[in-house]
Amino acid sequence: MQAPLCITRAFCVALLLMTAACEPVPSPQQTQTAMTVVKESFGTTSNGEAVDLYTLTNANGIEVQAINLGAIITALRTPDKNGQFDDIALGFETLDEYLTSNRPYLGAIVGRYGNRIGKAMFELDGETYSLAANNGPNHLHGGVKGFDKVVWQGEATENGVAFTYVSADGEEGYPGTLMARVTYTLTDQNELIVDYHATTDKATPVNLTQHSYFNLAGAGTSDILGHEVTLNASRFTPVDATMIPTGELRDVTGTPFDFRQLMTIGARIGQDEEQLNFGGGYDHNYVLDGGDDALALAARVHEPTTGRVLEVYTTEPGVQFYTGNFLDGSITGKQGRAYEYRYGFCLETQHFPDSPNKPDFPTTILRPGETYETRTVFTFSVQR
Ligand code: GLA
Fold this sequence. Notes:
Blueprint: H1 9-19, E1 36-44, E2 50-57, E3 63-67, E4 73-79, E5 85-87, H2 95-100, E6 109-110, E7 116-117, E8 121-124, E9 127-130, E10 139-140, E11 153-157, E12 160-167, E13 178-186, E14 191-200, E15 204-205, E16 209-210, E17 228-231, E18 233-237, E19 250-251, E20 263-264, H3 266-269, H4 274-279, E21 283-288, E22 296-302, E23 308-314, E24 318-322, E25 346-350, E26 365-366, E27 372-382
Antiparallel strand pairs: 1-2, 2-3, 3-4, 4-5, 6-16, 7-10, 8-9, 11-12, 12-13, 13-14, 14-27, 15-26, 17-20, 17-22, 18-19, 18-21, 21-24, 22-23, 23-27, 24-25
This protein binds alpha-D-galactopyranose.
Alpha-D-galactopyranose (GLA) is lined by residues 104-105, 115, 140, 283, 320, 322, 326, 346, 348.
């Protein structure tokens, strides 16, 4: 409907009385002209802690939803090559499902230490620290109640949301009170910027990451084997049978781990190769080429049927490429869709697993007076 033009104030008032509308009615394309951030209740935990849902929408209609339980990204709606929007992040619709389901870190921030610490132990400044062994003999993703399961404090920002969590000294066995802050910022350039910040009052290992499972064809619609991946990494960190890095930085040349040239996930995942067998597929840390702290392209993923492209940029030295090998259809997510074997992939930007026990790996120790600052950027686009 075309709104009437107002010539003079009196005319406008008269028209207003007649039409009850004097502002041009925006066309559907004009309704979203700037970023919006909307906060609403998502429910309450059994301890009475309020959980809120933050919906970030940019000028192009891209939507990111996140809750302050685990700083979880619950939904990510992006257009395909025909402009059709779909949710490309695995997750649930209700708080109850996040609280009661066995959910393998879907969409969450993982901490205090992302990925594994061997034998659930490390030594720091002459002291030995024991952590929960929640993955065979090893410690995984911060322990029994890691940062993915705690309630953070949320605060809407101009174009995103900031989540803060204070992890007590001794929590899950880690030394030092850690103040952690993660912000999600959505831009009109279709970037989701994830900024990580932490300080501590005692030396402690810190390795925070984002554990979203993506399926660029739409969450719960298919496996991810046809996705085409490029990884900017000439080396990876091979693991032992318990998934702890051996310490070697292995050249990917001539192995199924070489994604320097575009390759589908499924092309070599079924090969009878020791590292693939250990991981049940890809579940390995790649050593990113570049090697300084500057933001650099780590990965690019293209889904040919929808044309969706995800790019991941990071200041981190590594990325855990995980192909949903532990998904088995036992979780039913949004829209009643079961998350079957390999229905999602993760690109967890990080420092290398087991760094506290690997003096040759880049350090993950944060000391009092220092500031932990890392950034990862996810960009969404299409390729026709
Ligand atoms: C990471 C680990 C995997 C697995 C998944 C979640 O990627 O490396 O082994 O724990 O998280 O299931």
